[in-house]
Amino acid sequence: MTAILHGVTVLDFGRYIAAPFCCQLLADLGANVVRVERPGGEADRQRGPWAPNGDSLYFAAINRNKRAITLNVRHKKGAELLARLVAHADVLVHNLPASRAQALRLDYPAIQGHNPKLIHLAISGFGATGPRANDPALDAVFQAMSGGMASNGAAGQPPFPSHIPYVDFGTGVYGALAIVSALYHRKSTGAGQMIDLALYNTALSFVVGYGALADFAHNGVARQNVGADFIYAVGGTFPAKDGHVTVNCVTDAMFEDLCKVIARPDLALDPRLKGDGPRYQHRAIVNAAIAPWIAQRTAREAVEALAKGGVPAGPVRTVAALADDPQVQAAGSVQQIEQPGIGQVPVSPFVPRMQGSVPIARPAPGVGQHNAEVYKALLGLDATQLQQLAAEGAV
Fold first, then answer.
1. Which pLDDT belongs to residue 302?
2. Which of 190, 193, 214 has the alpha carbon at shortest distance from 204?
3. Is residue 370 part of a domain?
4. Does the pLDDT of residue 155 top 80, yes or no?
5. Is 74 in the same domain as 193?
6. Of 272, 265, 306, which Cα lies nearest the Cα of 289?
7. Dihedral sign (CA 363, 366, 370, 375)
8. What pLDDT shows up at residue 373?
9. What does the pLDDT read at residue 203?
10. Final residue of a structural domain among 254, 289, 315
11. DSSP 8-state assignment for residue 275
12. Residue 385 and residue 262 share a domain
């Protein structure tokens, strides 16, 4: 079966998470993704966690299914090679502030002249415009600035970030969606385009999409941290005999199911607990009923009983338990790749199960591992020419 993005060539100038993850998704859809690095490699190859041999496990987990070449775009001949590569590419992705992209001639005005049909994705912290367009920032900064972090943590205590960088990963998903959409648009119009994607806007889209800003606009409520409780919903995280269980339910019907499971039908009849809003307002009553019921059971016993009764629930686990999760095993949610120098590395395959995605075909590439292959295929350069370019510092 032909992959969805078969024949699409992507130049990946991404570093760290958002842009590399975006390009990995494109590779999973069959695109020929070429990671382009300075000679010697980029700093994100050294980011932790690390394997016993010192190689980055993080890098291995987010750069599979790609090829890698080296290119010094500051070198005169390197800049010429860049122009030739762009002419053969369909997509170019980077996550540089506007000023640095301009300095490296990776900005859209500089690139467009080499290929008017190119789709150019520029990921940055704050986007191409505004007073902070050139400011550096990372995921946690946008969790904080967007209002998302304010709702994390115990009431009265300082808020804390999510240690899974959801703004970065969300931006990667938005980027892949935008590129696939732009490719579809190009198919009908023949035109390339520049896509401006800001991490700040990703973070804001999640907070605004969850209704938090509307809540403030209409009710004057600026959501603050409420610990393990769920805003405008029933549940939280409760200790069991051997761990913790998270319970989360909404709607009257689901609450009635919960009351049946924990043998508290009186709560379903309590006029103070009619509707998600009142239940959230009087959550102390509900939590006081859930907590002792779970405390008398193991996490497994509690989750099985709640799930059987139609109540969403799950154990709070560390990643150590994922390998033994029968759901993970049955769905193939984690796969192993053989990473040179490291050995087996667990990775997440393409999440949507669909026709036209491709299996994991290769591990994360080494620095310049595919120089000979890519430069020959795209530009027709032979080994002697590449050796000369390397000696001159262009690749």
1. 98
2. 214
3. yes
4. yes
5. yes
6. 265
7. positive
8. 97
9. 98
10. 315
11. S
12. no
Q: Per the domain annotation, does 250 fall within a domain?
A: yes
Q: Does 263 have pLDDT greater than 90?
A: yes
Tell whether 194 and 57 lie within a shared domain. yes
Same domain, 371 and 254: no
Angle between helices 166-189 and 18-28 (to 10 degrees): 50
Domain span including residue 83: 9-206+331-391
Residue 80 sits in a domain of what CATH number? 3.40.50.10540
Q: Where are the alpha helices (DSSP H) in the chain?
A: 18-28, 57-62, 76-88, 98-103, 108-112, 139-145, 166-189, 199-209, 212-219, 252-261, 265-269, 276-281, 283-295, 299-308, 326-331, 371-379, 383-391
Residue 229 maps to a domain: no
- In-domain check, residue 228: no
Q: 1 or 189: whose pLDDT is higher?
A: 189
Q: Which amino acid is at 146?
A: S
Q: Where residue 99 falls among pLDDT bands split at 50, 70, 90? A: confident
Last residue of a domain, one of 315, 348, 373: 315
Task: Label residue 7 by pLDDT band (50, 70, 90).
Answer: very high
Band (pLDDT 50/70/90 cuts) for residue 140 is very high
Let me know whether 47 and 119 are in one domain.
yes
How far apart, in whole angstroms, are the C-alpha atoms of residue 124 and residue 136? 8
Q: Per-residue pLDDT averaged across 258-264, rounded?
A: 98
- What residue has token string 């338990």? 321
Same domain for 250 and 194? no
The DSSP result for 110-174, as a single string, is HHHTT-TT-EEEEEESS-SSSTTTT----HHHHHHHTTSGGGSSSTTS-----SS-HHHHHHHHH
Question: In angstroms, how far is the first alpha carbon of the chain from the final one?
Answer: 35
Q: Round to whole Å and give the CA distance between 387 and 202.
A: 43
The answer to whether the CB of 166 falls within 8 A of the CB of 158 is: no
Residues 342 and 309 in one domain: no
* Residue 273 sits in the same domain as residue 381: no
Half-sphere exposure of 36 (CA within 13 A, CB side): 26
How many domains in the chain? 2
Tracing tokens 């709070």 back to the chain, one arrives at 316
User: CA nearest 117: which of 183, 198, 33, 205?
Assistant: 183
Which CATH number does the domain housing residue 294 bear? 3.30.1540.10
What length is written for the chain?
395
ω into 352 cis (within 30 of 0) = no
pLDDT computed for residue 98 by the predictor: 86
